[in-house]
Amino acid sequence: MPELADRDEEWPVVRSEDLHRDDWVVALRADWLQRPGHPDDQPFKRLVLEHPGAVVIVAVDDQQRVFCLWQYRHPAGRRFVELPAGLLDVAGEDPLEAARRELREEAGLEASDWTALTTTYSSPGISGELLHYFVARGLSAADRDDFVAEHEEAEMQTGWVPAADLLAAAVDGALGDAHTVIALLMAQARGLLEV
Fold first, then answer.
1. What is the pLDDT of residues 16-43, one digit of tens each?
2. Which one of 3, 82, 153, 155 is the catalytic residue?
3. Burial class for 12, CB neighbours closer than 10 Å (0-12, 13-18, 19+)
4. Which domains does the chain have, with CATH numbers?
């Protein structure tokens, strides 16, 4: 049996073509791969969504409530219950610093205690997007800096939800945002979310 751990591996790319690229941080390209050790095989095409990565924050107050967002997501055609999150769209920014920034911008909060939960790939069959998950405690009100909510974020609702209720909704399948579910279950599994 192979080792029970992911490992880095690169297959040869014989050709690459941009399908969409603009001034936003996400792009789509097609790569043609060659199976290692099989030079006579025809190269095969795979789509790659380039993504800078993101952070997700489980912000827990002293009453064991979690700060949540209710936000519309056009590709899915749904309003999701989510946690504060955001792109690593500042060049060279450390994921923890991005998490601090996103918590200020989306929740108007800062935290004195941060715990890294895990890092996962969102959908490795199409993207190298890495998600960094954190638990934030010791919360207090913070200035949102120069953040201005626009587009879908302008319609976003926010509120505090008891951790037990939020976890129950995740386990019952009422929450469909994978990052919210992963963050909550990891926080509970690591003993960082009391229910």
1. 999 999 888 889 999 999 999 888 899 9
2. 153
3. exposed
4. 13-50 (no CATH), 54-189 (3.90.79.10)
